[in-house]
Write a structure and sequence with these properties.
heterodimer, A: 7% helix, elongated, B: SH3 type barrels, 1 helix
Chain lengths: 97, 83
């Protein structure tokens, strides 16, 4: 899951040493949220909450049982299943752990 | 990217979703809030969409405007859902 990359770095004495850096890819975080309820915040102050069932490299996401909330708190839905365009997505957060 | 996931059995990729809803009645919501409901004829990777027998909804209420064939340029699409 987490990849371990070795990067050479130089310490204060100027000596080269190997430092291991653990990296987690952003899309792996989203992948771990599949099957869970997530809230997707858009750049337009709207948000969509629903079960994440899939996504692609553009972060277009497929959501199930979705409610849409605008900036004034008005809700719309639920929508059974939708494909949400990744172009407007600012943040995705899992609402359960 | 890798599709390895413990949840892979319940996963529906965007491309899988799109191929599965061709020919269905769908609702397409645009960034400006206007929705179009019609039969999905075709969709591509840009989310360019072609629908027929399309009705227009503004603010959730039918505007009364109906179209035969409609092409929607993908950059305007907020979401597409099956109805």
């Amino acid at each position: 899951m987490a990849e371990v990359a070795t990067n050479p770095s130089v310490d204060v004495t100027g000596k080269q040493e190997e430092v291991t850096i653990s990296t987690v890819l952003p899309l792996e975080i989203i992948d771990k949220s599949i099957g869970k309820v997530v809230t997707v915040l858009l750049t337009t102050d709207k948000e969509f909450t629903g079960k994440l069932v899939g996504f692609d490299d553009f972060v277009n996401v497929v959501l199930e049982d979705v409610t849409e909330t605008d900036s004034e708190g008005n809700t719309d839905g639920p929508v059974k299943i939708m494909l949400l365009n990744g172009g407007q997505i600012a943040m995705i957060s899992s609402t359960e752990d | 990217m890798s599709e390895v996931s413990s949840n892979s059995s319940i996963k529906t990729d965007p491309s899988t979703f799109l191929s599965g809803i061709i020919g269905s009645k769908v609702s397409v919501k645009l960034n400006n809030g206007v929705s179009y409901v019609g039969n999905l004829q075709s969709i591509d990777g840009f989310m360019n969409i072609v629908m027929d027998t399309t009705a227009e909804f503004i603010g959730g209420a039918a505007s009364g405007t109906k179209y035969g064939d409609v092409f929607i340029r993908g950059n305007n699409v907020l979401y597409i859902s099956k109805v």
